[in-house]
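Model: You mentioned two targets. I'll fold them one after the other.
Researcher: Yes, keep them separate.
Model: Target one:
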Amino acid sequence: MARILTIPAFRVAPNTTLLSWGGITFLGALLLPWTRSGRDLFTFTTSSTGLALLGSSPLMPAILATAVLVAVAASLPWTNAQRGRVALGLGALGTVLVALRLFGAGQPFSGAAVVAGLGFLAVLGTGLALAGVLRADAFIASSVLWAGAFVIIFILFPLWAVLKASVIVKDQFTLAVVAETLRSPVFFLLNNPATTRNETLIGVQAGLVAAAGAVLFLAVTRRLRQSWVWILYAGLGVGVLTALYLGFGALRNSVLLAIVVGVISTALGFVFALLGERSRLRTRRLLGPFSILPIITPPFVLGLAMIYLFGRRGFVTYQMLGISTNIFFGPLGVAVAQVLAYAPIAYLVLQGVVQSLDAALEEAAETLGASRWHVLRTVIWPLARPGIANAFLLVAIESLADFGNPIIIGGGKPFLATEVFFAIIGRFNPNEAAVYGVVLLAMTLSIFLVQRYWVGRRSYVTVTGKPSGAKARPLPPALDYAASGVFLAWMALIVALYGSVFVGSVTKLWGFDYTFTLEHLRNLSPTGWKVFWTSAKLSAYAAIPSTLLGFLIAYLVTRVEFPGRGGLEFGSMLSFAVPGTVMGIGYILAFNQGPLLLTGTSLIIILAFVFRNMPVGIRSGVAAIHQIDRSLEEASTMLRANSAVTLWRIVMPLVRSALLSGLVFAFVRAMTAVSQVIFLITPQHSLATTQILTYIEYGSQGRGAALASLLTVFMIAVILALYGINRRLGGPTAREVTAA
C-alpha cells in the first residue's frame, strides 16, 4: 500500500518590526506622563501617566488596546499583505486617538504623547510597506511619515500660525488689523502731507516715461510685437520703484534696501567669481579666506565695526578726517554693512557656476572672431543667469530678514524686520507682528517667482559628461586689473573693519581713550561667558539632528519614489527660503500655548536651529548621494540587508565628508543666528549673538566687541578643524559645502 506524503502547513514567523513598535508604543503610553504642568520638559508627573489616566480618560484604554492589537497582528500567522492592511488601519486609528487625546486635553505634551505618536506613525509606515502601497521597506516608509510629520509641525504649522494670526483676532475673523497696519505711516506713506509735491502722480509719470522708452527701444530693435509684456513690466517696475523712493516707512526702506544690496552684492560676487577662476594675478588666492567670512561671524558685527570706523567718534571720520557725522546711521550704513556681509555669500554661489562653464563654448566663439568682451557678454553672462538669479534671491532674502544691522546702525529708521520685533516686544501686539510677517513672506515668494520667470525654461546645460580639452579663458587684462583693484580695496576695508572690532575689545573707550585694557574681556564674566557656552551647547545639540534629518530627507527624495515626494522636498526647504524673522514669529505664535507649549525652554531654540539649518544638510546630502552608484545599494539589498543597514554601512561611509561639513556648517550657522531666535530667548536661555546686541544697545560697545571677537576666534578654530579633518577624508571644505 502506497504511503501518502503529507506536507506540513507553512507557518509565517512573527513580524518583529510590528511587534517591537507595538510593545514600545504600549509601554510608552502606559508608563510615561502624557502632560506636564509647566514649561519644564523633564518633569515626571505620576498623575498624568497612562496607567493613572486609565480610569479618567476614555481615550486611554482605546490607545493601549490599539497598541496591543498591533502586537497581536504581528504575532498571528498571516501573510505580509494581511498584516499590512491590519497595520494600516491600526496605525491610522492610533495616530488619530493620540491626536485627540493630546489636543483634547489642552495641556502641554510630555513623553508619552511623543512616543505614542511616533510609534503609531511607524506602525502605519510598516503597514504601507507590508501591504505594498509603498515600494519600500518598513524603515523607509516610516521615515517618510516621520519626516513629513516634522515638516508639517515645525515648518508649515508655524507659517500657518502667522497667516492665521494676521486675520484672526480674539477667535474672530477680521481684516481690521491688516488694514490698520497697512495704512500706518510706519508701514508705508506715499503722499506726505508735509510736502507740496504729489508723489503718486510723479510715480505714474515715471512709469509712463519708462514704458515709452521701452516701446522706442523695442521698435528700434524690431522686437516690438513679441515683447509687449516687457513694456508693461518696465512701466510698472519704474513706477513702483519711483513711488517707493519718494515714499516713507518700513516697506519702502526694506524693499529698496533689498534691491540695492541684492544687485550690488550679486554683481560683486559675480566679478569676484570670475576673478577667482579666470584671473592671471596672484591676488585671487586671497578669495579663499574672503569666502569664509560670512560663515564665521554674524552679519551685524560689521555694523558694529562701522560705528568704530565711521561713526560720530569713528577712527576714520573723527580721528583722521576731523568730522563728526551721522551719515552712516540710517539706510546708507545698513546697506554698506549688508553688502560687506552678503557679497561673499553671492560669491560662494556663483563660484560653482563659473567653474562649471564649458570653456569649449568660449573657445568656439573666439574662433569665430569674437573678442573676450563679446564672449563675456554673449556666452558667459547668459549661461550664468540661473546662478545669478539664485544669488540675488538668497541675498535679497537675507537683507529682508536682517535684524541686527538695522537695530545697530539703522538710525531709528523703520524696517520690516525691526518693526516685527517692536510690534511684539514694544507694542505687545502679535497680530500686528503677524501682518508684518505675512508681508515679508509675500515679498520673499514674489522674489522667488520673479527669479523663476527670469531664468525661464531655457536649457543652461554645459556639463554633459563628454570630455572637453578646452581650458578656461582668462579675463580681459583691463577687467582683470580693475576687478583685482576692487577686490584689494575690499579686502583692506574688511581687514580694517574686523581689526577695529578686535582692537575695540582691548581699548578702554573707543573714540576717547585708546589705552590698552583687558577690562572688557574680564567683564564678560559671568554673563558673557555663560551665554557663549550656552550658544555652543545648544548649537551642538542642534547640529547632529539637523545633519542626520537633512541627510535622511535627502536620501528619501533622491532614492525613493512615493506620493508627495516633491511636497516633502519643497516643505523641508521652505524654512531656508523664508526670512528667519517670519519663522521666529511663527514659533512664538504656534508654540506659546496649548498642547504644543515650548516657549521658554531650550528645546524650542534647538528646534529652531534644526529646521532652519536642515536644508543645508539636504542640499549637501543630495549632491553627495547623486555621486553614489545605485548598484552598491542594490547589492546590499540583494544580500538581504534592510534600508537602515544599507544607509548605515554603505551610504553614510561614502558621504561622511559631506555629513561632517554639513554638521559643522549647521553648528556655525546656529552659533551666529540672530533673526529667528531673537523672539525665543529667555534670561535663562540667552545666546551670544543676542547678548552682543544687548551690550551695544545699552552702550557697552567694548563688551560687545569682546564677545564678538571671542565668537569670531572660536568660529575660525572650528572652520580650521573642519578643513584639517576634511583634507584627511578627502572631502569638500566648508566654503564648498556653503556653495552647495
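Model: Target two:
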Amino acid sequence: MIHKYGKIFTGFVLAGVLLTGCAGADNEALPGEEATEVENTEAEAEESSAEEDAQEQSAESSSGNVAPRVEIETSCRDWYDEDGIRWLMHAETVSISVSGKSYEALSEAVARWNEEQTEEFWESCGEFSGYAAEDAAYTEWDADSYYYDAWREAELCRVDGSALSLTILSYAYTGGAHGNSGYTGVTFDAQSGEILTLSDILTDEDGFRVAAQRWIVEKLAADHGDELFEDYEETVAAMWEPEPDWYLDAEGITFVFDPYEVGPYAMGAAFVSCPYAEFAAYMKADYVGMNGTGAGRFSVNTDVETEAGTLRIDMPVDEDYGMAPVSLSLNGESLEAGEFGSFGDAYLLRLSDGRSFVLFDADYASDDYVCFLCEITDGSPVLRSRLEDVSLQGGTAGTEVLTLRVHLDVLGTYYAYMDYVIGESGELMQTEDVFEIRSDSYAWRVLTVARELPVTVDGQAGVLPVGTRIRITGSDNAGTAYYRDEDSGEKGTISYVRGDGEDAWELYINGVSEYEYFEMLPYAG
C-alpha cells in the first residue's frame, strides 16, 4: 500500500459489482498504428522504425553515457452496479517503462516495481468500489457520471546515467467534501536498478539532516508564512523516520509535504529543494547534479547551476492573478518569453551530441499553453522553438524523445499527444503524422451517430448507421480523424474541414456541421 496520509487505499469489496475495461485503453493501438492499418502505409511504418533505430544507434555511438528512455502510459477501469447500469467508480493509473542500451537492470527493476504498484492500486480500487456500491443503494446521482474516483499520475523529475527519479501523485475520492491526494517520491540507481534511500546518496547523513532541516524550516516560512500550522517545525524535525518523501531533479534533493502535513488542505502540497550547490558536501559525487546526458526538472524563480553557467527562469508573483513576464537568463543574458498568467514546468535537457537545452511552458489563462525550447550550449540562451497550444502537462520529458500534450479540438476531443525530437537546428520536430488522442472511459466521450456518417474503412468509403457509438482516437489535425467503433472494435477514418470565418471553430463533414452528425458533441474548450 501507499502509506502517506491521503494515499491509503482501503475498503471492502461488495458482491455483485461489475468491472469493465476502459474502452480498450489497456490494449488500444496508437493512432499511428491505426493509420498503418487504415491507409496501408506498412512500408512507411518500417521506414520510420528504421529511422528511429538509426537515430538511437547514432546517439549511442556519439556518447558513452546515453540516458535511459522513460515512457509513461495511462490505463483505466470502471465499476458499475450489478445491473451494469449505474456507474459507480472510475479509476486511472500509470504504467512506467524504461529502455536503453546498458540499462537492462534498471528496466527490469522498474518493471517489477511498476507491476507491484499497479496491482496494489487496482486491488484498492476494487475495495473502493464496494463503498460506492453501498452508497449507491441510498443515493441518487446522474447515471452518466461516476460517483467515486481514484487515480495515479507520474512525473519524471530526473533521468541520467546515475539516477531515475519520479514523483507519483495519488488521489482518491470516496465521498465527503473533497478527495485526498498525496505525493510519493521514488529514485532508482540507473546502473543497478535498486531503489535509493537518502543513506545511499549521502556521505554525511547526520550533517545533512541538521543542515537540511534548518533550510527546510526557513524555506517553508518564506514560501507559506501564516498558512503553516503552528507546529510545522516539529513535523519537519520528525520527518526523517521513516524515510521522508523526496526526489532528485536538476536543482537538488526536493522534499514533499502533502496537504495537512505542515499546512491545511487549502495550502496544497509544499515542495522544498535543497540545492546541489548548498548540499554537495554531504552527497556522493554521482548524484550531485545531472550526470552526463539526461533530463531534469527545475522550478521557476530558482538558480540552477549548469556547465553553461547559472540558469534561471523568472516569473514575478502577481498577487492579483494578472499577467506577469516570463524570462530565461543565463550568465547575465536574458531571453523574454512574454507575459503569462501562470508558469507550467521547466526541464534542463542534455543531449548525447553535447548540446544543452531548456524546455518550458507557460499558460496565458485557461489552459492556453505555449511551449518553448531554448538552446544554452554556448552559454547564451537562444530560442529554437515556440509552439502554441503545446505543453509539458501530462507528457514526458526526455533527451532523445519528448512527449508533449497538444490542445487539439477535433470532434469533441481536447487533448492529444505527440512525440518530438530536437532537430539539427534545435527545432522541435514531430516524429509522427498522427496525434494520439488517449482514450478514457468517460461516457460523454462516446459519440453516438445521429445521421449516416461518411467514413473510410480499409481504404473503402462507407457510412456508419444511426446509433453507432464511436470514440475519436487520433487526428492529423489537417482533415482526418481516426475512430474506433465502441461495440465492434472496427477502426476507420473521418474526413473533415474547418470553417473559415466566424465558424472557424466548427468542423464540417461532407458539407454538414459536426453537430448534426452526433446526438451530443462534448465541449472541447
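Researcher: Noted. Anything on target two?
Model: The radius of gyration is 24 Å.
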